[in-house]
Amino acid sequence: MSGTAQIGVTGLAVMGRNLARNFARNGLTVAVHNRSRSRTDALVEEFGSEGTFVPAGSAEEFVAALERPRRLVIMVKAGEPTDAVIQEFVPLLEPGDVIIDGGNAHFEDTRRRERELRERGIHFVGAGISGGEEGALNGPSIMPGGPAESYESLGPLLERIAAKAPDGTPCVSHVGPDGAGHFVKMVHNGIEYADMQLIGEAYHLLREVAGYSPAKIAETFRGWNDGRLDSYLIEITAQVLAHTDAETGKPFVDVVADRAEQKGTGRWTVQIALDLGVPVSGIAEAVFARSLSGHAELREASRSLPGPVAEPLDEAAAARFADRVEQALYASKVVSYTQGFHQIQAGSEAYDWGVDPGAVAALWRAGCIIRAAFLDRIRAAYDGRPELPSLLADKDFAAEIGAAQEDWREVVATAARQGVPAPGFAAALAYYDALRAPRLPATLTQGQRDYFGAHTYRRTDRDGAFHTLWGGDRSEVTA
Ligand code: NBP
Question: Which member of 50, 77, 152, 192 is catalytic?
Fold first, then answer.
């Protein structure tokens, strides 16, 4: 006999519990299950009044509680726990049932799981979910992959709980087959790393070069949030900077250790970008900057290395510099997104996913950590032009970056002159200049490779591969 629950959630730690509550608050009957029964009972006891929950103590009870085709969301720790849960449930399921993995899985794991379950007629949907615990409860951005037909039964349920963009559109749509959803979520997290790094650099420059206090920088960020940088991360940055430590009365940022943590999705983004040959230098610099911050002994040993003596700025010059930093931050941010979307397009091509970059930008307009007003402009840039080679090829973005470039260069130069590290700003500018350059020094790289390894080179005036007999008579031969 079929159960009554339209959806089930197994794994009721912070994310699963909030997702289950979100489904229930939106009128769905939700079966809930967790390896340790106590979490299931706690959920029903604390939040049972929010909607209709069907608590299940065992996998069998959980599966029996679901209407057919069964739709069950796995929200457990990514990796082996996900495989363990799949193995536990699969013998209890039937062809046509849908398993949704909402954890932060590596997309290659999702591809493997989808392939294995497809053979048994079970739909496996790897769904990236962003927004943290608050998003899970009140509306996350959801990036489901898996078979397109599973979205027909799943989509309407996910649309109920997803965040709504300013125009009312739910931030969920079928991203593409097999691992496409988790791939796009991975790149989302990579862009999140880059965004946070750039914001950090802006803060650092305003502090060290403009001489602003955290409170003054909070005010500056609040102002920026009313303009084209309007985004969740800028908004919370202003709040973090304005926060005072209750114990010491000092600015919060002055009592926190300057060592950043990372869970790994940013690192995955860079690893996969290397495999795909996509230059995501902004994300890579962000990952490396976090790593560097954690090398306490290395930093301690290097503290006495010489650096420049900074010239303090007067008030007017500081205000002018702050305006320049806004330009540099915006331009660098556009470059990060350009690189991230390049990676999505490259992944889509490599795995034949047919991902629509404009639709991805639309998914990120609300609910997720990188939600920002300008995502609507990215969506518009790709609208009807999914083959757009780069966001920088969009004339509106190109014009804005063109207008920002003088200030951007000045900020990068000032950072170098005053000894303030700004790897994100500098890498973004180098990427921009490398794309624009009529000739790159790769010409010399070709020569060097041919010299020491007879790797051959290509010429500008003739087709084919060539090799020079270096050191001998230097005559060219066609390889
Ligand atoms: P955790 O990642 O902390 O995982 C805890 C859950 O996994 C508990 O329900 C636990 O059951 C279950 N579990 C483990 Br651990 N091993 C298991 C096994 N072998 N069999 C069955 N269940 C097992 O939970 P979370 O922070 O809520 O995150 C859930 C997923 O969502 C993760 O993949 C995470 O990466 C992803 N995510 C998290 C966030 C966030 O902001 N936290 C955001 C976006 C995505 P137990 O209660 O019996 O120990």
Answer: 192
Q: Which long-range contacts (CB under 8 A, 24 or more apart) does 273-276 make?
A: 273/190, 273/343, 276/343, 276/346, 276/347, 276/350
Beta bridge partners of 29: 52
Q: What pTM does this model have?
A: 0.96
CA distance 340 to 379: 14
For the Cβ of 127 lying below 6 angstroms from any atom of ligand 1, the answer is no
Nearest to 118 by CA among 92, 97, 143, 87: 97
Look up residue 410 and give its two tokens: 């000045």
Amino acid found at 298:
L
Q: Residue 124 forms beta bridges with which residues?
A: 99
> Tens of pLDDT along 40-70?
999 999 999 999 999 999 999 999 999 999 9
- Phi, psi (deg, nearest 5) at residue 469: -85, 85
The Cβ of residue 409 has, within 10 Å, a number of other Cβ atoms equal to: 18
CB 26 within 8 A of CB 160: yes
pLDDT in tens, 66-125: 999 999 999 999 999 999 999 999 999 999 999 999 999 999 999 999 999 999 999 999
Residue 222 Cβ contacting ligand 1 at under 6 Å: no
State the average pLDDT for the chain. 96
The pair of structure tokens assigned to 405 is: 């470039």
* Nearest of 207, 411, 423 to residue 312 by alpha carbon: 207
| Ligand 1 atom with minimal separation from the 132 CA | 41
Q: What pLDDT shows up at residue 386?
A: 80
Tokens standing for 188? 């989302």
pLDDT at 479: 66
pLDDT exceeds cutoff 90 at 2: no
Is the pLDDT confidence value at 476 over 90? no
